[in-house]
Design a protein that fits this description.
39% of the residues lie in helices and 21% in strands. The chain has six helices and six strands. A six-stranded mixed sheet has the order 1-2-6-5-4-3, with helices on both faces. Helix 2 packs across helix 4 (62-87). It starts with a strand and ends in a 5-residue tail after the last helix.
Length: 187
């Protein structure tokens, strides 16, 4: 697992994104670049064709999946940025309405909670993974196309769990963390 080398601002005081050593872009920018790339998507869906054509997804063709993913990614990116901006003025319209706990446990809320945001379609296979630092403050660690019921079934999803955990550890390791000092970590 590569180390985090930077955290970049996507939307000031709302969405930030880590960049891992060996990567050219931060995770947020990288995700949306991949999800708009038809060649990448075609290769991904061909590789995971049995998952895509399961009963759950309704036997979606690779071509349909590529088109659907590209459209949904555009909508998801816009929605995240719009809500991030709105959340600075309206605490009832914050990123916490989009990012939900990775593990559904209504009895606990932990500091630097691991979260996921889904695409707009019902159901959606797009996922963005992030650490919640505050109500409208999230640090994106990565994302994936999730075609299986759990994250434990595919290598690319297990990598996302590792990236989430690495991001959480990175944020915890910063001495005397509070939300105001967080912004000093950002480029």
């Amino acid at each position: 697992m590569n180390q985090i080398i930077n955290i970049f601002k996507i939307v000031d005081k709302s969405i930030y994104s880590v960049q891992f050593d060996g990567k050219d872009q931060d995770e947020f920018q990288s995700l949306f670049a991949l999800w708009s790339n038809p060649l990448y998507l075609e290769e991904f869906f061909e590789q995971h064709k049995s998952d895509l054509q399961s009963d759950f997804w309704g036997n979606v063709s690779v071509e349909e999946a590529v088109i659907r993913t590209r459209k949904e990614a555009i909508t998801l990116e816009k929605r995240l940025i719009d809500i991030a901006e709105l959340g600075k003025r309206d605490r009832y319209e914050s990123l916490s309405n989009i990012f939900k706990p990775l593990v559904n446990n209504p009895l606990t809320t932990e500091q630097f909670e691991r979260t996921k945001a889904k695409g707009n379609l019902k159901p959606s296979w797009l996922r963005i993974y992030a650490i919640r630092a505050d109500l409208n403050l999230f640090v994106v660690s990565g994302g994936a196309i999730k075609l299986t019921p759990t994250m434990n079934e595919r290598e690319h999803l297990l990598l996302e769990i590792q990236k989430l955990n690495a991001t959480r550890t990175y944020l915890f390791d910063e001495e005397n963390y509070d939300s105001s000092s967080f912004f000093e970590l950002i480029i």
